Amino acid sequence: xxxxxxxxxxxxxxxxxxxxxxxxxxxxxxxxxxxxxxxxxxxxxxxxxxxxxxxxxxxxxxxxxxxxxxxxxxxxxxxxxxxxxxxxxxxxxxxxxxxxxxxxxxxxxxxxxxxxxxxxxxxxxxxxxxxxxxxxxxxxxxxxxxxxxxxxxxxxxxxxxxxxxxxxxxxxxxxxxxxxxxxxxxxxxxxxxxxxxxxxxxxxxxxxxxxxxxxxxxxxxxxxxxxxxxxxxxxxxxxxxxxxxxxxxxxxxxxxxxxxxxxxxxxxxxxxxxxxxxxxxxxxxxxxxxxxxxxxxxxxxxxxxxxxxxxxxxxxxxxxxxxxxxxxxxxxxxxxxxxxxxxxxxxxxxxxxxxxxxxxxxxxxxxxxxxxxxxxxxx
Length: 379
What we know:
By secondary structure, the protein is α+β, with helices and mostly antiparallel strands. The chain has helices at 14-28, 38-49, 54-64, 69-86, 111-116, 129-143, 242-252, 255-263, 285-293, and strands at residues 34-36, 93-104, 121-124, 160-173, 184-188, 198-214, 219-225, 231-238, 266-275, 277-283, 314-327, 331-344, 353-356, 362-367, 372-378.
């Protein structure tokens, strides 16, 4: 429909999601451990972008690396279908991504956008706060297999007219599992002043894997594939120990340095030590601050926000993101959900190379086919 004009230099791509995700990672990593889903957060904000006009639209376009609403929606639809469909019926790997647009009963949005979004649209009564929150939370709980039971509180919905919700769930077994009997307690040297030294359960694996040294990233890079072979975890271990090395790697990370590092991996015998860990993260105020720091200020401003392609007099009151990851000897389970609330104004035998993650590292769960950064974190 014509409310989604095609842009002469349209852009919506995996590289854009990676750039956006790494921007957010750099903002959030100031707080220590971080874990979130770039694709999931991008999806919910991309839905909001469809309703943005003027300066709000320009800011979101820069933030999300999107040009053209038609391109944005087509790409999002395609990715959700591709990612959710590819592993259907496989027992060792499961990936599901979905999004929904909840609209308040009696709240009229632009009819053309209404029809463009019809496949993910649901009308609910935000006047019944608890019931509305339950509806949204049940959707997220179901979509994340119970890993994220709630994303909104009833008290957040008092002025809400639209809620843009996205959810992602991932479960994958390692192609080469770690032997639990080789897991031992070891010291993990966290960055001083951010986190003290701690004892972790260190998993251990010795075998031929894809390993590389990236000079651009000042880091060693290891690929740990999941069973299907098309989704992998990439671990970036800074060459220099301590905060300086970690910051240097974080600063240098972008789609091209990451891609170059992925292409530069070679099969080597590796002695891997990776902590077994679980993280549950909740981002609200700090995520909104990060988005503002990255230039998307108008969407949160009651006066300046322009979402007139949806409806007049609305702004984004809340962006909430929750993420969960559990990394074990057998594999990884991860999930994330985002709520954007739109309110009314009021090898051959060789020496094995050590890859010892006993200090902070960055990890990426990455779809090798679409090149979409599904999850990213720093431990």
